[in-house]
């Protein structure tokens, strides 16, 4: 390593923390280096804990904030120059100066009043570094402009994230989200949505869980059952208020879960779907059937999931009987055209981050027009057409969903959207296609929580 000559202040970089440019004060009186951070928070397993913290890299400014994470190496009592003792977390990271780099230990402390974001102590100053205390910045200058450009996003390291999965079920999809997330070095916590409660106020909105305030999460993956949609989406709205990245937003989940609302959204975007009619309590069942066409017809409960509450009425008389039965139960339902040419098959397109990442054809069990895998249907991978791909993407976009299962029927007049599912399961489509769908979901999450460049203020 070449010899370096430092003044009492130098430009440095901490690339592993996503901090490419910092001004550091050289402090030969201190053994360990210190980084001035705030919102310091421990997370991860007790056997291998991590720490997450925020840094304002530009001294005296709070517009630019970088979120960093690292493994905890130690916790030590540090005495500052004014004699105050403080227990600090110690991390190890790489210091970069003038194209040279080496590992250093850094303690984390919340001392926002300090003008220097970083103090470099003796341990960081290698034997080949000489110090001239009367000089300033003898190494090449860097610039804070890097935080205002896309370069900071491209160069940002893959940091450990803290992710919440909102789920009440220990099923394949939830287990895969935990397994793949932890394999990538993230901490994934499964939260029972119904055990969350909320502090709603303008200054500090919070989500509480089992008597404690939930920590700040980098991302939330909602997997909310249909039976708790109203409360589940309220919890997601609270995370949105806090500013947490949610894979699917509350508005999109709410609209997609209500079949009437969903069909109205699809119609407003001119997305193909089977002809549909709805009424709360029509006096004339015949008129309702006439709006859709002739039998056979599909009659669906608005709250139906996994093929439950979906009936095929093969004749007009059968349709009238089913409608009368649903009305007798005071149930909300819709009547829909039966696409005969689909022959008990549909196509599930899985959309992640504006791309169809996998597609499978689902075929109903013998004698069943419903193709749901939960009802004994089978699935295999399928090649979809450009029209089908575009329809699936437009449908997911119409609800603003980052992750969606779009179910299509192949009709003589082109693809028809049957349903947009905001909490699609991963088991069927991963097994049918052999693709790592959950890994693709994490690719999106990791890209979305990378730091964003901050625009400079004019003037």
Structural overview:
- InterPro entries: Asp_endopeptidase, ATP-grasp, ATP-grasp_RimK-type, ATP_grasp_subdomain_1, Peptidase_aspartic_dom_sf, Rimk_N, Rp_bS6_RimK/Lys_biosynth_LsyX.
- This is Probable alpha-L-glutamate ligase.
- One of its GO terms (cellular component) is ribosome.
- Its cofactor is Mg(2+); Mn(2+).
- One of its GO terms (molecular function) is ATP binding.
- It is a single chain.
- By secondary structure, this protein is α+β, with helices and mostly antiparallel strands.
- It folds into 4 domains: 152 residues, Cathepsin D, subunit A, domain 1, CATH 2.40.70.10; 85 residues, Rossmann fold, CATH 3.40.50; 64 residues, Dna Ligase, domain 1, CATH 3.30.1490.20; 106 residues, D-amino Acid Aminotransferase, Chain A, domain 1.
- It contains 10 helices and 28 strands.
- The strands form 7 sheets. A 7-stranded mixed beta sheet has the order 2-3-11-4-10-9-8, with no helix packed on it. The protein has a 5-stranded antiparallel beta sheet with strand order 26-25-24-27-28, sandwiched between helices.
- Helix 3 packs antiparallel against helix 4.
- The chain is elongated.
- The mean pLDDT is 86.
